[in-house]
Design goal:
The protein has a domain of 282 residues: Rossmann fold (3-Layer(aba) Sandwich). It contains eight helices and 14 strands. A six-stranded mixed β-sheet has the order 7-6-5-8-9-10, sandwiched between helices. Strands 4-11-1-13 form a four-stranded antiparallel β-sheet, with no helix packed on it.
């Protein structure tokens, strides 16, 4: 019997295919398992058997967006930052700059010229109102022989009883307030010489201070209150022209306040009768003052300070607009009002040669005034403005006589009477309640 023979395969080849299939199946299982684990969420608390480092979790689209950084406050580069919520700070009021040139005050004296000791009590009748009155004719010439009975005083429309009238010369406290802006460039030399003429007329007891002003931040006392004519002349010699926005209102406001403060700080009873004045030299054009015009005149109502003006207004524009005044008209209006409401006077020189004569007239006006004292019939409320008018009867030949003084004053609180000192050997009749208890 014929045997069929088939070719035999080697034993290795017989098992090669199953082994290959098994290897492929085993290699595919981990990848499939990894995809399943990645696709389904992991249970909370499930244990991880894989010791390898965990793979990073994929970020969601919201997480892949770049977060907006929190803005940090920036430090301002300049001295101040203006925001919509906080308005810019208001400008500070100007101050009268000083320099250490003032001499010590003289010892206080009473009305008879005697020195007052530190332990003595000086009684001042604060209820009297003192008016410094200048009497002139129609041509503005001073009249010095008016009898006491020819004066009439009304306050708030009510006639007042005059206590006494004095013609004797009393000491004068005045300030020379000189504009040093570019508008006085051509006049500064002659202005200084005219001011020296006024200083030379000072008499014993007179006091003068010198102020140089330009803009609001450049109002400076060159020499404070003194009777030293040499020191005052040196202060005037130190003046020079400088650029800036002229602040006439601020200069007068601060200088008048400074002149009035002298009365408050002094212990001299005669200070109530002392004349106080400002001699203002300017072109009158106020360009950039902190204080308004009405604020100035409200302040002048409280200060008994006469203002004399030497106004160089000729170089200002005189052409007015369709509605507004010209620069010259505004300056003249301001300067005239200063003099009128304080009982002073204005001078408008047309040439520098007039300055010496003007200086002499100012000096004469300050010396030839009357001091009228009266006690008000009705006491005004503190802060109330009391208008005052002084009238003078015509002369014997029908000559018209005009009294010039301040327009009124602001009533102040009545000062409390000082306690009387206990007499030696007498027991005090009043005892504080806290010390009147029995132990």
């Amino acid at each position: 019997m014929r045997r069929s023979e088939f070719p035999t395969r080697p034993r290795r080849a017989r098992f090669a295919a199953p082994l290959l299939l098994l290897a492929l199946t085993g290699s595919l299982l981990p990848a499939s398992q990894a995809r399943q684990n990645e696709g389904r969420p992991r249970r909370v608390g499930a244990k991880t058997t894989n010791n390898a480092a965990p793979a990073q979790t994929r970020a969601t689209p919201q997480q892949r967006q770049t977060p907006t950084p929190t803005p940090k406050p920036t430090t301002p580069a300049g001295p101040s930052v203006v925001t919509q919520d906080a308005p810019p700070p208001a400008p500070a009021p100007p101050k009268l700059r000083t320099q250490p040139t003032a001499e010590p005050d003289a010892p206080a004296k009473d009305e008879k010229g005697q020195e007052v000791g530190d332990d003595e009590v000086v009684t001042i009748d604060a209820s009297l109102v003192n008016l410094h009155v200048r009497v002139v004719d129609r041509n503005n010439r001073p009249i010095n022989d008016v009898p006491d009975a020819d004066f009439r005083v009304t306050e708030n429309g009510v006639a007042q009883q005059i206590f006494h009238v004095e013609r004797e010369e009393v000491p004068i406290t005045y300030g020379l307030v000189v504009d040093n802006s570019g508008s006085l460039r051509n006049q500064i030399g002659q202005v200084v010489e005219a001011a020296k003429t006024i200083i030379e007329s000072n008499k014993p007891g007179d006091e003068t201070f010198v102020v140089r002003f330009i803009a609001s931040d450049e109002i400076k006392i060159m020499q404070d209150f003194t009777a030293d004519k040499q020191a005052l002349g040196d202060a005037l010699d130190d003046m020079f022209i400088e650029g800036g926005q002229t602040a006439v209102v601020d200069a007068v406001y601060l200088a008048a306040e400074h002149a009035a403060e002298r009365r408050v700080k002094s212990n001299d009873p005669a200070e109530e009768k002392r004349r106080r004045a400002l001699i203002l030299v300017t072109d009158g054009e106020d360009r950039d003052s902190f204080y308004k015009t009405e604020q100035l005149f409200e302040s002048l109502k409280e200060e008994d300070v006469q203002i004399y003006v030497i106004g160089f207004v000729n170089e200002l524009e005189k052409e007015r607009g369709f509605i507004t005044q010209s620069k010259r008209q505004k300056a003249v209006s301001l300067l005239d009002r200063m003099a009128k409401e304080t009982g002073g006077r204005t001078f408008y020189p047309t040439s520098l040669s007039e300055l010496p004569g003007i200086a002499q007239e100012i000096t004469k006006d300050l010396r030839t005034q009357y001091v009228i004292s009266y006690r008000p019939a009705t006491t005004g409320r503190p802060g109330e403005f009391r208008p005052v008018r002084v009238a003078v009867a015509d002369g014997r030949g029908g000559e018209k006589r005009i009294a010039v003084t301040r327009s009124g004053y602001t009533a102040k609180p009545t000062p409390a009477a000082p306690p009387r000192p206990a007499q030696p050997g007498n027991k005090s009749t009043t005892t504080p309640a806290s010390t009147n208890r029995r132990p």
